[in-house]
């Protein structure tokens, strides 16, 4: 017994001194070979008592398995140490490299772009650092308009331009409307997806956010074309059951103007949800086992308790603003409003994504929490 314990201690000392594969092989033969030290220690096992034989055999097998594992481990360490690039061990487990992915907003924007691409809209891009002229004057927003206050707009500390006014961080993608009109002539079908900046920061607002602007200008364009396009987008992006509605509103650069709402995906526009899912479900009741057929009945809608939808409260959720392009905006873009008309809308990809997934805090999108981002 003591001989086995001595071999175990001696092997660890020998292994520590090995610095080559040839040395490892010689060490293996020394201890595990036919005439190795372990087999030599077992030669006298026949002279022991049965209980001692069992104990010696168990210790010897345990030592053999330990020596095999330690030799394999040392062999791998020697290959790493010598940095042999041509070495490949197919039995080693593969390295689990971290798998990256696109940001959730990049995925949402790409989905929106593809939806409008199907109906002929071309994506354009315009400056994030903009002039007051394109962000305000050309969009029929006078000097005293509240949106031009420094509480609503980021102004850049630089000398203003004599023609275009002060330099700002673009507060909306609508500034690309007039730029697109000046760049090309009707028919125009463009989608502008870009970053915008406003000094707001709360559950539903961020100082940097995305907008996507749609603009369509041609002869005979009217509200029905706007409604059809937005309805198509809502059904493609959310789901076919969703509906839209137009509410009269006021924007300086469109007339008439509308707020566009989309029906809630939870209550489908009703404003209420059932506390149970038993509406229309059929039950069979056997009042008497001896009867041939059980009596059947259906749960009617009136028999089910209803609760106000906690997601939308009213059945509808605000999607964004839209309207028919104001004649003054067309003139600022060099287009004759007597010949051409058009519509425009401005929606937020973050808002659309939140309405689609049920996310309640916009700050989760930009907080960098890897546990949140890994879900997409």
Give me a quick take on this structure.
This protein is of the alpha+beta class and 376 residues long. It folds into 3 domains: 2-82, no CATH class; 105-123 and 177-271 and 309-373, BirA Bifunctional Protein, domain 2 (2-Layer Sandwich), CATH 3.30.930; 272-304, no CATH class. The protein contains 11 helices and 13 strands.
How would the blueprint of this fold be written?
Blueprint: H1 2-17, H2 21-32, H3 37-42, H4 50-82, H5 104-117, E1 122-124, E2 129-131, H6 132-135, E3 167-169, H7 175-183, E4 188-197, E5 208-218, H8 223-237, E6 244-251, E7 254-263, E8 272-274, E9 282-285, E10 295-298, E11 306-308, E12 316-325, H9 327-332, E13 341-347, H10 349-357, H11 370-373
Parallel strand pairs: 1-4
Antiparallel strand pairs: 2-3, 4-5, 5-13, 6-7, 7-12, 8-11, 9-10, 12-13
Helix pairs in contact: 1-4, 2-4
Describe, in plain words, how this protein is organized in 3D.
This protein has 376 residues and is α+β, with helices and mostly antiparallel strands. It folds into 3 domains: 2-82, no CATH class; 105-123 and 177-271 and 309-373, Bira Bifunctional Protein, Domain 2 (BirA Bifunctional Protein, domain 2), CATH 3.30.930; 272-304, no CATH class. The chain has 11 helices and 13 strands. It has helices spanning 2-17, 21-32, 37-42, 50-82, 104-117, 132-135, 175-183, 223-237, 327-332, 349-357, 370-373, and strands at 122-124, 129-131, 167-169, 188-197, 208-218, 244-251, 254-263, 272-274, 282-285, 295-298, 306-308, 316-325, 341-347. The strands form 4 sheets. The protein has a 7-stranded mixed sheet with strand order 1-4-5-13-12-7-6, sandwiched between helices. It has a two-stranded antiparallel sheet with strand order 2-3. It has a two-stranded antiparallel ribbon with strand order 8-11. Mean pLDDT is 82; it is low at 276-292 and 297-304.
């Amino acid at each position: 017994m003591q001989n086995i314990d001595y071999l175990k201690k001696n092997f660890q000392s020998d292994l520590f001194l090995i610095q080559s594969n040839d040395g490892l092989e010689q060490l293996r033969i020394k201890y595990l070979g036919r005439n190795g030290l372990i087999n030599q220690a077992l030669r006298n096992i026949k002279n022991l008592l049965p209980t001692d034989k069992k104990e010696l055999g168990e210790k010897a097998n345990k030592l053999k398995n330990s020596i095999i594992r330690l030799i394999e481990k040392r062999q791998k360490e020697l290959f790493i140490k010598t940095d042999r690039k041509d070495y490949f061990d197919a039995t080693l487990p593969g390295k689990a490299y971290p798998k990256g992915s696109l940001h959730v907003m990049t995925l949402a924007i790409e989905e929106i772009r593809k939806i409008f691409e199907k109906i002929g809209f071309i994506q354009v891009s315009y400056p994030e650092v903009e002039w007051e002229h394109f962000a305000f004057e050309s969009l029929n927003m006078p000097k005293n308009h509240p949106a031009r206050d420094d509480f609503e707009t980021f102004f850049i500390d630089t000398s203003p331009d004599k023609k275009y006014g002060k330099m700002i961080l673009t507060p909306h993608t609508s500034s690309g409307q007039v730029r697109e009109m000046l760049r090309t002539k009707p028919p125009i079908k463009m989608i502008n997806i870009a970053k915008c900046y406003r000094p707001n920061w709360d559950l539903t607002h961020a100082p940097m956010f995305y907008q996507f602007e749609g603009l369509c200008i041609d002869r005979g364009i009217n509200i029905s074309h706007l409604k059809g396009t937005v309805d198509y987008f809502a059904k493609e992006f959310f789901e076919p059951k969703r509906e839209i509605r137009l509410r009269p509103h006021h924007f300086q650069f469109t007339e008439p103007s509308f707020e566009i709402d989309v029906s809630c995906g939870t209550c489908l526009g009703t404003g209420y949800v059932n506390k149970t899912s038993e509406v229309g479900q059929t039950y069979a009741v056997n009042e008497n086992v001896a009867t041939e057929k059980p009596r059947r009945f259906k749960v009617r809608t009136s028999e089910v308790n209803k609760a106000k939808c906690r997601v939308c409260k009213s059945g509808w959720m605000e999607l964004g603003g839209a309207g028919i392009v104001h004649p003054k905006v067309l003139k600022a873009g060099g287009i004759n409003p007597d010949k051409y008309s058009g519509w425009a809308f401005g929606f937020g990809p973050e808002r659309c994504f939140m309405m689609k997934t049920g996310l309640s805090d916009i700050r989760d999108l930009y907080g960098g929490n890897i546990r949140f981002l890994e879900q997409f």
